[in-house]
Amino acid sequence: MASTSEVSEQPQQLRKSLKNRHIQLIALGGAIGTGLFYGSSESISLAGPSILLAYIIGGAAIFMIVRALSEMSVEDPKAGAFSYYASRYWSKRAGFISGWNYWFNYVLVSMVELAVVGSFVNYWFPNIPQWASAAFFLVLITILNLFGVSEFGEFEFWFALIKIVAVIAMIGGGLAVIIMNLPTDSGVRASFANWFTIDGGFFPNGVMSRAADGRWTGLLMALVVVMFSFGGTELIGVTAGEVAEPRKTIPKATNGIIWRILVFYVAALGIIMAVVPWNRIDGQMSPFVQIFDSVGVPVAAGILNFVCLTAVMSVYNSALYSNSRMLFSLARQGNAPAYLGKVNKRGVPVAAVLTSAAVTVVAVVVVFLWPQFAFNYLMSIATIAAIINWTMIMITEMLFRRHVAAGDGPGELRGLTGKEALDKIQFKLPGWRWMPYLIIAFLAMVAVLMCFSPSYRIALIAGVIWLAVLFAAYALASRGGERRREAAKEC
C-alpha cells in the first residue's frame, strides 16, 4: 500500500478552465497567421483567381479532419488529443509517433516564428539585434504559459482578436474601394470582374501546367501551398483536456471552421484580387499592404507590421501551449519521461513548458548559425509532419469507432455495442463510413503533387527519413523500458 507522502506526490490534473470565447478565438487565430498575410502571394502566383477554389477544397478537407478529431474529443476529452487517441485506440507506438511528430513539428514552427520576429521589430527599431528580439519574446511567452491555462486563453484571445480585426478592416476597406469605384495605381478599376478578365481569367494556369521556366503551376500545385497554410486548426483538439464544457464548446468551435475559412481566406483574397490585379501580386510586399498602397494609404505597411508581430507572438504562444500538453500526454502514456507528466498547483505542466522552450532555444540558435540547413531541411520535416498528423487522425477515427462498436468506448459509450453504441456518439463525422478514406486519398494526392515542386520535393524525402527516425526511437525507448521493468522485478 502506498504511503501518505507517496499519495500526496501524485501528479495533479490539468484544469478545465478554457471558456467558450477562448476556444472560439484560439481556433480562429490558429487559421490566421503570417502565412495568410505574406504567404498567400505564392499561392496566388501559382493559380491566379482560381486560388479561391483551392482554399474552398482544402478548407473542406481540413474541416473533415478537425471533425474527425472533434468526434473523439467530445466523447473523450484528453490533453494531447490525437496522440492520446492513437495510443488508446491504435497502439502505443502510434501514440508515440503521433505525439513526438506533432511536438517536433511545432518546435520547428516556433523556430521559424522566433527567427523572423526580429525583422518586424527592426521595422521600428533597426538597431536591436534580431537574436535579442527572439530571446525577449521567447522568455515573455514562456512566462505567460507558466501562469495557467486561463491566462494562456486570455492572451491568445486578444492576440487572435487583433488579427481578426485587421482582416475584417481589409475586407471592409476593399469593398469600399470596389463599391465607390476608386482609381488605383495599377490603372485598372477595382471590380470583381477582374477575376475573369485579367491575364488568362479565372484559371490562368489551368488545373496544372508547366511554365516556360519548367516550374509546375495551376490549381493543383497551389493546393499544396494552401494545405500547409491551414496548419494549426487541429489545436481545437489539443485544448479538449482543459475545456470547461467540451460537449458544448468543441462542436461549436469546430463547426465555425468553415465560415472562418470562407471569410478570412476566400473573401479576403477575393477582395484583394478584385482591387489589385492578380498578376501584380509578386510577393515583394504583402498582398494586404498592396491593397491599401494601391489606393494611397501608406500607413498600411506599419499597421500590418504590428499585426504580423502579433501573429508571430500568437503562433509561438499556441505552439508552446500545445507542445507542453503533448509532452504531458506522452508522459502519461509512458511514451516520454515521467517528469513531463507532472503539473503544479495551478494545473500547469511546468516541466513540459520549460523543456519545450529550452529545445526551441536550441532550434532558434540553429537558424541564426546555419539558416540554410534550418530552412531547407528542418522546415521540410515540419512541412511533411502535418500530412503525417492529419493521416493518423483519420486512421485513428476509424479505429475509435471499431472500439466503440466492440463495447470499449469511452465514458457513456462504455459497455454499449454495435449500432446502439455508434448512434450514441454525439458529434459524428459526416459520412463516417467513407469520409476517412476520401480524406486519406486526398492527402496522398497532395503528397504526390509535392514531387512536382523542387521546394516541396525535399520535404517528402525528409519525411521518409523522419518517420524512420521515429520508428527507431520508439524501438529503442521500448527496449529501454523493458530493461527497466526486468531490473525492477529482479530487485
TrEMBL record:
Which InterPro entries does the record associate with it? AA-permease/SLC12A_dom
The places in or outside the cell where this protein is found are: Cell membrane
Gene Ontology cellular-component terms listed:
plasma membrane
Keyword Methyltransferase included in the entry's annotation = no
Transmembrane spans: 23-40, 46-66, 102-125, 131-150, 157-180, 216-236, 257-276, 296-316, 350-371, 377-395, 434-452, 458-477
Sorted UniProt keywords: Amino-acid transport, Cell membrane, Membrane, Transmembrane, Transmembrane helix, Transport
Q: Where is the Amino acid permease/ SLC12A domain?
A: 22-477
- Does rRNA-binding count among this protein's keywords? no
Per the record, membrane topology reads: Multi-pass membrane protein
> Biological process GO terms, please?
amino acid transport; transmembrane transport
Q: What Pfam families does the record point to?
A: AA_permease (PF00324)
The entry sums up its family as follows:
Belongs to the amino acid-polyamine-organocation (APC) superfamily. Amino acid transporter (AAT) (TC 2.A.3.1) family.
Protein name, entry field:
Aromatic amino acid transporter
Organism expressing this protein natively: Bifidobacterium anseris
From which lineage does this chain's organism come?
Bacteria, Bacillati, Actinomycetota, Actinomycetes, Bifidobacteriales
